[in-house]
Each structure stands twice: as structure tokens, then as C-alpha cells.
Amino acid sequence: MQFSELIRRSVQVNGRGAAIVDLGNGARRSYEELACRIGQLAASLRANGVVEGDRVAIISENSGHFIEAFFAIIWCGAIAVPLNFRLTNEELTQQIDDCEPTALFISPRFVDRLDGLNKVRARLKLCVVMAESTETAATVALGSMVDGRPEVRPFHWDHDDAAAVILYTGGTTGRPKGVMLSQKALIMNAYQSAALLGNTAGMRYAHVAPMFHIGDCAYIVAVTMHAGCHVVIPEFDPSRVVDALARERVTHVALVPTMINRLMAEPGFVGSELKWLANIIYGASTIPESLLRAALEALPGVQFGQSYGQTETATITVLRPEAHVTSGPAMGKLRSAGQPAIGAEVAICTPDGSEAEPGEVGEITVRSQSLMSGYWRNPEATRESVRAGRVHTGDVGYMDEQGFVYIVDRLKDMIITGGENVSSPEVESALHQHPAVLECAVIGVPHAEWGEQVHAVVRLHPGAEVEEHALIAHCRSLIAGYKCPRTIEITADPLPLSGIGKVLKRDLRERIARKAGC
């Protein structure tokens, strides 16, 4: 199946229905209008020299123009490369040097950054400002590229594994790794998401997570497949999200646990104003069970579903809504990441390469139709990650007798203290159960005797007070003593987050190392 077929079907079944509600610029478009603009934009790209296999980068916050550009790039046979606008110019240049785009779509908000990307601009055939007007001598406005131009016939992708999208993985050292995803992989992932979307009739999906990340990029495809409405929120702001969910009658939204935590503290999130909200999908990082239970209690009319995966794999497992219960025969699975997604074969591998027994801890691996085609121009990294057709995730976990997967930790985040392995999410879950704790992160810090010791960074609810020793005592009542934090830093500042909303433990480690003079 081709992306163009998804769009054409949506026109057939919901042509005059809402396709995009852009809360950034106020644009509202039907599927007929969206399809026409995509076809015309693809024609303009071709007319400006963009050919099959060219990479076309996107630097933008969430927007309706992002969705148009994303589909138009692939429509004309090129490869879409959404980039993280939160990166520095130096970091962006590294990724752009790696993928060598021939064209660039850039939001008006970031146009002033072009002066810091002169090396990049020199080799571009085309630089498009994502606005209806606003052109300069060196750029063209997206609006002028869809103004009456005949649509181009969509490019037909003959090879199932041909890259349609490149997404760069997080990381600040070494060579950037661009994950190549084919149309097949993204469409397969859209089918996998059906287990969590529930009733998609009249679906109005809020894009809250950044579109440059697989967690939301995948739903650009999935919502279009279901001819649903894309309600686009430029960036995550708790009060703005709550207002949008209510005002736009949003039925579906995907959030990371940090977002859920911050929304729970926002007036109106658990009120009657959100009577249209039917599904919350969460993922990208482990959710504390106490937070999940609180959300289930606060939003009894909302179905929750978890999606676990990576950029390299898309969806690996899903925890379906029926498992999100705190009583009855289906209870007891809230700590899990769910069962293998449709079309995914998940195996837990021990260090010697054999498959683990139920309950035995090992590395989570997966074979699926939604796997990446490899890392862009990096066969060595591809061979390291993909072995015998399976992606080795770097996540440590186990599977129970019913096929539910439990994530213990990232291999690199596992704390080894005195020879004992400590799972940071387990300690974070214990801390989260204290009523004063708003958010926290647990990391290992160097220790002369133990190798590492458990350290926690904690932010409290506004007005709350608690001593370090009280938090440690609280943890000792819930988990083994060797797992408990030896030191706790209580901070008034929000924890540093990545573009998708994961806590940047790397930044915390570096800050602590600087304080220690390491």
C-alpha cells in the first residue's frame, strides 16, 4: 500500500469532513482540500528539481503544514526527514550533513536560524517557509506552491523496504543515526495502533507530542488511514492542551507519562469539559503505576492503552484498554508494557543468545513488518542493532506465561551497586507513591566502594515539604534497602526533558559530574 492510497481513500470516505484543525495558525481543511494541496505541493517539489530518493528536511513545530509537507515529500518519491527543532544549529548541521537534503521546509518561527545554517543552505535546491505567504529572495512560501498548480501523479514505491522517512535517534555523541522507515513499516504500525484506538468513527486526534518523533509521526499516518481529524497543537503546554481537548471535542490523544503527570495537576483536565475524550494512549517511557492508577481513577470514562516501541521498531507491544483495570480477573497487568503487537514476534534473549524462560530477565528483541530498513548510510550500526532479522532494543525485561512483557530498564540506565542490579523505574515508582512527589528521576552516580550508588532527583508538588530522610524511609517501606536512594536532591526546577517528554537522565548525570569536578 502507498501513502497516496491512504489519502485518496480518506477523500472517498470523508472528503468534506475535517482533516486538519491547526490551532497554531487557525487553518481548517477538509480531506478534499488536504489531498489537493498535497498533490500540488508534490508537483512544485518536482518542478524545483526534487527527484526520487532525494532527502527533504522539515524543521518545524507541530502544524498542519507539517502534515502537508510530510505527505507531499513522499508523494513525489523523495524521503521526508523531520528534524528536532530543539537541537542547536551545530547538532542540526551534523544531522543535515549526514542525510544531505536537497530541499528544506522550515517554520516561520525558525527562519532566523537559517543564518546559522549557511553551509546547509548553500547546497539546497529549494528552501520553503511553511506559511501561506512570507517569501524572501532565498526562500519560497508554501502557500505559493499550492496556488492553482496541477497535481502530480504520485510516485509508486516498488520496493517494500525503500526508505520513505528518516528519523534521527536521540543522542549527543558520535555519528548521528538516521533510522530509515519504509511506507510498509509505517502502515503496518498504523494497523498495530488499531488495538489502542478503539472506536475511530468521528475520531478527532490531538497531536500533542512533537511530530518529528516516531511517537507522533506514526499517528500522522494512522489518523489519516482512518480518515480522522488531525487537531494540531503546536507544542505541549498543559493549560493550552486542556483547553484544546475541550474546545475541539478531541476523542483521542497520545501522551508520554510526564505529560499525563503535568496534566493531572491542571484544572479542568479531570472535569466534565472533557466529556468527548474517549482514548488516551501513552508510551515512550515507563509510567509509574501510582500515576497510572490515579489517572484511571480520575478519568473513569476514558479508555487507556499503552504502546511500547522504539524509533527502530515502531510498535513492539500494546497494553490494551481491557487490561487497564484495578480489580477483576484481568487485573495485575498495569506494570507490564502489554503483549506483542499484531505482526510482532517478541523474544527475551539472555547474554548467551538463547531465548529466556518465562520470568527470566534478558534483552528485549523483536522481529516485525514495522522494523526499520536500517540506519542511513551506517551499515556497521545496522549490523550491531539488527541480528538474524531481529532488532535488539537495548531494553532489559522479561515475559510472563501469558506473553505480557515487563520492562526492567534500559541496559545503559541499569544501576549496578555492590554487584546488585537496580532498576531505576522501580525506584522511581516507589518515590512517586509519596504524596509530596510531583516528578523524579533515579540515576547511578560513582561511588568509591560500591561502584555506583542510587541517587534521586526529586521535584515536589507546589507547597509540599518533605525531608530527604523521609523519602528514603518511604522507599524502604516499599522496596529492598539496596535499591533505595542513598542520596536525594530536591529541586524546584522542572526536570530536563527530551523533545518527546522523556526525562534526560544523561543531562542529570553530566550536571552532577560537573558539581563533583569530574
Lateral arrangement of strands in the main beta sheet? 2-1-11-10-12-13-14-15-16
Mean pLDDT: 90
CATH superfamily of the largest domain: ANL, N-terminal domain
Count of structural domains: 3
Give the overall shape, derived from the CA principal axes: globular
Query: What percent of residues adopt helix (DSSP H or I)?
Result: 25-40%
Q: How would you describe the overall organization of this protein?
A:
By secondary structure, the protein is α/β, with parallel strands linked by helices. The protein folds into 3 domains: 31-158, Rossmann fold; 186-408, Rossmann fold (3-Layer(aba) Sandwich); 418-516, GMP Synthetase, Chain A, domain 3. The strands form 6 sheets. It has a 9-stranded mixed sheet with strand order 2-1-11-10-12-13-14-15-16. It has a 5-stranded parallel sheet with strand order 4-3-5-6-7, with helices on both faces. Helix 10 (289-298) links the parallel strand 13 and strand 14. Helix 2 packs across helix 3 and helix 6 (183-197) packs across helix 7. The mean pLDDT is 90.
